[in-house]
């Protein structure tokens, strides 16, 4: 009799726990509804609306006149758009390579347990807290031939010193790389430093016992183990490349001429200044397709690596 009552009490307790778990699960789903609605309507909805407008003859205001691929044909016949894509490719490669290189070197430097490590982390990461507009204005002053580095060098006696990249057709795009890499390298440093701190200490102990130089351990063992951190940094940097707009406006206004024109500025100019919503929407869709084409394989490969690592962990 006692055993029967005990069994009934246990069943009732399990039922109570199950009901409590269902209530918590329902509460969690309800809490997620605002975010889900935002994703569906504010993100997916606006993407579909932009794609629809890009297939119309919309000018100042959206219209329902179907134009098919006309806007896309006009877009790729526009020399300014082609130049902006070329500039973005140059900027993107240089920006990502420089940020990854500087961020890795900074992370390795701080990983040596240097003095005032916390202060150095803050100093290196601080530029990322600034807006790209502020960064652009500061670097516009630094690179100004009449006020910045060139003027300082000439006042120091170097009469023939030249550093006028910001007004040069050939080098203007690289001034954007300098300014934005200065701002974003600290973020890469923080991501890679977190990965370095996750490296098993036994690896370093074994390397010391075998007499392997420290640089060799980093180059052959540690850096290849940072694939996940590197891929995360790459994704974030690539998104910054595609979103590049405010630093261009603050520093060069896309000039001189179209030397630093980028797709973001092209889209905003045609959307607001030239009142051509259809062409601006087509450019936005092309830019979105480019992002998906580049990031989808990276994210897929990253998920495969994570899944394989999880399976190896289960076997062990």
Automatic annotation (TrEMBL):
Family matches, as SUPFAM superfamilies: MetI-like
Sequence ranges assigned to domain ABC transmembrane type-1 in this UniProt record: 85-298
Top-level lineage group: Bacteria
Transmembrane residue ranges: 88-110, 122-142, 171-196, 217-242, 277-301
Keyword Nucleotide-binding: no
One GO CC term on file: plasma membrane
InterPro entries attached to this UniProt entry: ABC_transporter_permease (IPR051393), MetI-like (IPR000515), MetI-like_sf (IPR035906)
Pfam families documented for this protein: BPD_transp_1 (PF00528)
Membrane topology: Multi-pass membrane protein
GO aspect biological process, one term: transmembrane transport
CDD domains the UniProt entry points to: TM_PBP2
Membrane listed as a keyword: yes
Keywords from the UniProt entry: Cell membrane, Membrane, Transmembrane, Transmembrane helix, Transport
Localization per record: Cell membrane
Similarity comment: family membership: Belongs to the binding-protein-dependent transport system permease family.
Name this protein carries in UniProt: ABC transmembrane type-1 domain-containing protein
Species annotation: Paraburkholderia caffeinitolerans
